[in-house]
Amino acid sequence: MSMKPIDFDRRYGELDHVVSAYLGQPADDEQDRPSRALRAYLRHTWHTRPWALSVAEQQLRAYAHNPPGRLRQRLGEFYPVPDIGLSDSEIQAWLVLLADHIKQSIESGEVPRPSELPETRWEWHAHFTELGQFLGGWFSQDMPDEFTGHEAAVRDYADSTDRTLVARLVGEIRELLALGLDEADLALAAAELGMELEPPQGHSTGSWLSTVADELSHFRPEYA
Hints:
single chain, mainly alpha, 12 helices, 63% helix, elongated
């Protein structure tokens, strides 16, 4: 049987955060230079959950030194490292290298400067979590089969989502717009965050997101 969530998190929870940062990115870390993916993880984690860095270092090292044997694999009680372009024989050394980079970052105490813009898809979603849920969950290519249009999808999100999360979405939209991106970069940001459709007719990505934020700011659930 697979591991219980609490056991998985204790053993592999932060390891999963680190490895997930590499999806779509090359695992090209070197001894004297962490990869772009690891820099994104370090930057975001230093500024949001600095305590998690030591957990990541410990879990990476523990997994590398004690890879799952046949019994744990048969029982499903292990973390399956996703395909990141490395062979099985290279994974252990790579995990140790990541642990070394994280340890060096902790011991040096040099906090990476915030990036003006997220640099990887993982960092976009880590920084704009609820906006990623909104765009990826309600505005995928399946949206026209589920809703009559953008407005209906926004209404469904508002009706089915806790008010604190709706408020968080409004804040994230306003934060994204405050970055001062041009329309092309806003469209790319929305695509990174999961939007697979064009904004409704008559709107650019920026004007539509601004309209959504305004509408949700004044929205009241039907049961209110």
